[in-house]
Design brief:
14% strand, 459 residues
């Protein structure tokens, strides 16, 4: 049998040709699926009897496509679908059966959908919830769904929380989503970040991009223990979560760090900072979105493979570390990204669009930077990508560990505002020295403040 085109299938359907006879005794699975996938909309008088017969087909994709088309029928036989659901073994088909029954919007299917809520497949449970939610004013349905906020599956919990609980806990923002406070714009505060953040209002930052100090790898980052280090970062990013606007992003640049051995009688210790830190971020309201790999040229990193190159003995292999992680998180919200985007006027959205040549993968090949004053400087290109991809013009960009100030300077060059904190006097003075004077009246001059001056400015 020759292969039909999509146009021919539509023509046969519109001319009331018996498609069941066309597919009867057809052994070519791809042929059957092609016909089923291209039926399009079905008229009220379409004869779909053959679709119910295909529910017994041995191939799950055929059954799936049959159910999908049954869902388009005006007079769907829900009882027959329910019977097939009881014996169906393929998860995808079972999920589509619930979807088709849900599209009927018939209250008599309520009892069956209640039973489906106990299914072990969370995707099927979510499909049943979706089918039940169309009956907005049925109190028995609400009573059955609300307890699912304690369901073991996080996807089910999220759906129920959004529908029945989130709207009662949302707080009113004190200023529009696209705006921030003037006293935070282009400010560098010389202070411990936690002390400075106590004076920053909720929902005032659009994007945070930072590289925390590496655990005991530098003289300016000495902590009594690794646990104390992680707990310190947890406090910083919990406060960052508070001051971040709803649904906006945190990007943390980290990598595993090696603490050198005390003597040849001891081993060095390697700490997996990005992986250990994730737990603390996730439990405090940050939703993991992406992991971006910053790939550096091998010539730029410390040689760890030298010893192995000499003897090639197994167990002693230590590859050169040419990557760092940019862990991307979003402040948890029930609102979609579109809500964030609609908070800006059309001109800002248009002017903030990312130009051609943007990175399409999560591996960014960028050369590192080196500086005589600061040992871990952000490359400008790295900052540019993060700021352009995760913020709009006029947004406030925050870096709790300001360092050499690259985040601030890059944000300013991209028509964003910045707010930095930095505890080390050497780096604070370094940023002041590199700050360019005001050249235009419309340009907001960078202010370098002590903690006391910053506190006074917030009043």
């Amino acid at each position: 049998m020759s292969i039909l085109t999509k146009q021919e299938i539509i023509s046969l359907k519109n001319n009331k040709v018996n498609l069941g006879e066309l597919l009867k005794n057809q052994d070519d699975i791809s042929y059957i699926n092609f016909v089923l996938e291209n039926l399009g909309q079905l008229s009220h008088d379409f004869n779909g009897d053959f679709l119910y017969e295909l529910l017994q087909h041995s191939h799950p994709q055929v059954r799936f496509n049959a159910v999908k088309n049954i869902g388009k029928l005006k007079n769907l036989d829900a009882n027959l679908l329910i019977k097939n659901y009881q014996v169906e073994t393929d998860t995808k088909v079972r999920r589509e059966i619930i979807s088709s029954i849900g599209r009927q919007r018939h209250i008599q299917n309520k009892s069956f959908l209640f039973n489906v809520l106990s299914d072990t497949d969370p995707k099927i449970v979510c499909q049943a919830i979706r089918a039940l939610l169309v009956f907005e004013h049925d109190k028995t349905i609400e009573a059955r769904l609300r307890p699912l906020v304690n369901h073991p599956n996080e996807m089910v919990r999220t759906v129920i929380y959004k529908e029945f609980f989130a709207k009662f806990h949302q707080k009113n923002a004190t200023l529009p989503h696209a705006e921030t406070y003037d006293f935070l714009k282009n400010i560098v505060v010389h202070a411990d970040v936690l002390k400075a953040l106590t004076h920053v209002p909720d929902d005032s930052v659009h994007l945070t991009f930072t590289s925390p100090p590496y655990y005991n790898a530098r003289d300016y980052a000495i902590y009594p223990s690794y646990q104390a280090y992680l707990e310190f970062l947890e406090r910083v990013f919990t406060e960052t979560h508070r001051i971040t606007k709803e649904g906006r992003f945190l990007i943390v640049n980290t990598s595993p760090v090696i603490i050198p051995r005390v003597s040849r009688a001891h081993s060095s210790k390697r700490y997996a900072i990005p992986f250990d830190l994730h737990h603390y971020l996730a439990r405090n309201g940050w939703e993991f979105i992406d992991d971006i790999i910053w790939l550096k040229p091998e010539a730029c990193v410390k040689n760890r493979i030298g010893g192995f190159m000499q003897h090639r003995k197994p167990l002693a292999y230590k590859p050169n570390a040419v990557t760092e992680y940019l862990m991307v998180y979003r402040k948890q919200t029930e609102k979609l990204l579109d809500w964030n985007i609609r908070s800006y006027d059309d001109e800002t959205v248009k002017n903030s669009k990312v130009s051609d040549g943007y990175e399409t993968t999560n591996v960014w090949k960028i050369d590192p930077c080196f500086d005589k004053i600061h040992p871990a400087v952000f490359p400008v290109e790295l900052c540019k990508r993060v700021i352009q991809y995760y913020s709009y013009k006029g947004d406030l960009i925050f870096d709790p560990f300001g360092g050499s100030g690259t985040v601030g300077r890059t944000a300013k060059s991209l028509d964003r505002f910045f707010f930095l904190t930095e505890q080390e006097p050497v780096y604070f003075e370094y940023m002041k020295a590199k700050s360019k004077p005001q050249t235009l009246f419309k340009e907001r001059q960078t202010l370098f403040l002590t903690l006391e001056q910053f506190v006074e400015s917030t009043k």
